[in-house]
């Protein structure tokens, strides 16, 4: 009996499925995005949507859209080097045309398969793109000096209410679709500006929260005064009767609500005691 040797499995390195480059489609809100495994999908940063199929509003853009898709910006440098090597070779085989046909057929089959797959999450995949023009990149990025771009980036962090008491990863979803996010070109730059921002912002945010609490406490006291509660009233009675009042809800923590209530009751008790003593002296 002849023993048939088993075929050895080829070591195939997994390809990166994340976006590596993107190019906006002129005159439309869409961008063409290439992934590391040579797939193509469409991304609309305005509505935060990514799809494999060609969007309906690009149906009349067949020729120029194909031109964009067939010219991946991250492969231009490689193609130039390849062309230069070919020009230095003594001759070219006629089989190249057949290879091109095979590549086209393989690309068509791969594109057809891609339509059946779920597009990647745009808020994760479009954060970093390599090579070419980044989707949604402000046209003035290359003109503005770095200091001004950092200023705009900080303004974005402030306007998007990025919390100084949180982390970069947790706050990223608030800013990743803002055009100013792309003013800084690398993740390292963005993270560095974020870290500097939170150091300064932490003190300001603490003061703001303290100020908001004082304002809420003041409104809460007015509610206590208007409610005409007595020194014998309980917090449960007060919360049952006035828990739906906005001034009650503005004090977010229940322990603060009860604490402010007890402070007010103590004042009432002290006042009642002074009144009783005054009455005794009058007698």
TrEMBL record:
A GO term, aspect molecular function: transcription coregulator activity
Cited PROSITE patterns: FF, WW_DOMAIN_2
Region (Disordered): 1-29, 67-141
Any one Pfam family match given in the protein's UniProt record, by short name: FF
Listed Acidic residues bias regions: 1-13, 82-106
Keyword Repeat (UniProt): yes
Keywords: Coiled coil, Repeat
Compositional bias (Basic and acidic residues): 114-130
Residues annotated as domain FF: 146-200, 212-267
GO cellular component term of the entry, any: nucleus
Coiled coil regions, renumbered to chain: 199-226
InterPro entries noted in UniProt: FF_domain, FF_domain_sf, TCRG1-like, WW_dom, WW_dom_sf, WW_TCRG1_3rd
Domain of life: Eukaryota
All residue ranges annotated as the WW domain in the record: 28-57
Keyword Coiled coil: yes
PANTHER family: TRANSCRIPTION ELONGATION REGULATOR 1, TRANSCRIPTION ELONGATION REGULATOR 1-LIKE PROTEIN
Protein name: Transcription elongation regulator 1-like protein
Organism: Coregonus suidteri
Species classification: Eukaryota, Metazoa, Chordata, Craniata, Vertebrata
């Amino acid at each position: 009996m002849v023993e048939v040797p088993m075929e050895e499995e080829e070591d195939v390195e997994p390809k990166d499925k994340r976006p590596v480059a993107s190019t906006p489609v002129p005159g439309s809100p869409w961008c063409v995005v290439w992934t590391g495994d040579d797939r193509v999908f469409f991304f609309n940063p305005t509505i935060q949507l990514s799809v494999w199929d060609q969007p309906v509003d690009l149906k009349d853009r067949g020729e120029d859209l194909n031109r964009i898709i067939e010219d991946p910006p991250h492969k231009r440098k490689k193609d130039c080097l390849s062309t230069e090597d070919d020009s230095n070779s003594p001759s070219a085989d006629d089989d190249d045309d057949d290879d091109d046909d095979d590549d086209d057929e393989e690309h068509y089959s791969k594109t057809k398969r891609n339509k059946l797959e779920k597009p990647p999450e745009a808020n994760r995949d479009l954060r970093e793109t390599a090579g070419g023009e980044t989707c949604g990149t402000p046209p003035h990025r290359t003109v503005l000096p770095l200091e001004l771009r950092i200023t705009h980036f900080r303004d974005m962090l402030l306007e998007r209410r990025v919390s100084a008491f949180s982390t970069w990863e947790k706050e990223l979803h608030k800013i990743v679709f803002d055009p100013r996010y792309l003013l800084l070109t690398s993740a390292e730059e963005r993270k560095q500006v974020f870290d500097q921002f939170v150091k300064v912002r932490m003190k300001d945010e603490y003061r703001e929260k303290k100020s908001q609490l004082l304002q809420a406490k003041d409104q809460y006291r007015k509610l206590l005064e208007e409610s005409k509660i007595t020194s014998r009233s309980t917090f449960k009675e007060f919360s049952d009767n006035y828990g739906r009042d906005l001034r009650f809800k503005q004090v977010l923590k229940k322990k603060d609500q009860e604490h402010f209530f007890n402070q007010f009751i103590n004042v009432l008790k002290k006042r009642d005691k002074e009144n009783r003593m005054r009455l005794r002296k009058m007698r």
